Amino acid sequence: MAMKDREANYAPEKKVKKGTLLRIIKYVLKYKLRLFFITIGMIGSTLINVGASLFIKVAIDDYIMPMLLQDKANVDFLPYLRIILLFTLFLLVGVLCAIMYKLLMVTLSNGILMEIREQMYEKMQSLPLRFFDTNSAGDIMSRYTNDLDTLRQVLSQVFPQSITGFLTVIAIFTSMLMLSINLFVVVAIMLLIMLLFTQWAGRKSLKSYRKTQSFIGGLNAYVEEMVLGAKEVKVYCYEDRNVKVFEGKNNDWAKAVVKADTLSNILFPVSNSLGNILYVLIAFAGGMMMLNNITNYTLRGNGILTIGTITSFMTFTKTFSSMIAGFSAQMPFFVQSLSGAERIFDLIDVSPEIDEGTYKLEKTSKNSWQWNNGKNKVPLVGNIVLDNVNFSYEEGKPVLKNINVYADKGQTVALVGATGAGKTTITNLINRFYEIDNGIITYDGINILDIKKKDLRDSLAIVLQDVSLFTGTIMENIRYGKLDATDEECIAAAKLVYADSFIEMLPDGYNTVIKGDSGGLSQGQKQLISIARAAVADPPCLILDEATSSIDTRTEKLVQKGMESIMKGRTVFIIAHRLSTIRDADVIMVMKNGEIIERGTHDSLLEKRGHYFELYTGVVELD
Ligand SMILES: Nc1ncnc2c1ncn2[C@@H]1O[C@H](COP(=O)(O)OP(=O)(O)OP(=O)(O)O)[C@@H](O)[C@H]1O
Ligand SMILES: [Mg+2]
Question: What's the pTM value of the predicted model, to 2 decimals?
Answer without folding.
Answer: 0.67
